[in-house]
Amino acid sequence: MIKHLQGKIALVTGATRGIGKGIAIGLGEAGATVYITGRTLEANNDGLGGSLRETETAVREAGGVCISVRVDHSDDEQIHQLFAQIEREQNGKLDILVNNVYAGVQAIREGFGKPFWELEPSFWDAANHVGLRSHYVASIRSVEC
């Protein structure tokens, strides 16, 4: 297989499961060094499934290089530290940013089937804060790399 992304540095936020995990595997398979983030480092019984370690293993099995970084994307300082780490380890290089992190799954589970007017405004925050705001923050930081 030709590694079209050999030498490229990628960051996939929210890569513990689903689309983020699949994108990370594909980027690794194509030759990129892939940084992955999420809150779940090791597998647990949270009912959601997936972990950074599982994704990292899958990327490596696909022939890629993967670096797991536990990040709570609701905390701007942790996002700042993530980009500082990438800058330090990759000499300021970041070629690909995939903003995929989303933390509203649990909130949606709890509110599923209820009319929106029966949900507290905190439901909106839980479902959208990380997915919207952290994408903006990560995009700003990626330009600085």
UniProtKB/TrEMBL annotation:
The source's superkingdom equals: Bacteria
Q: Which SUPFAM superfamilies match?
A: NAD(P)-binding Rossmann-fold domains
Q: Name one Pfam family in it.
A: adh_short
InterPro entries from the UniProt entry: NAD(P)-bd_dom_sf (IPR036291), SDR_fam (IPR002347)
Protein name per UniProt: Short-chain dehydrogenase/reductase SDR
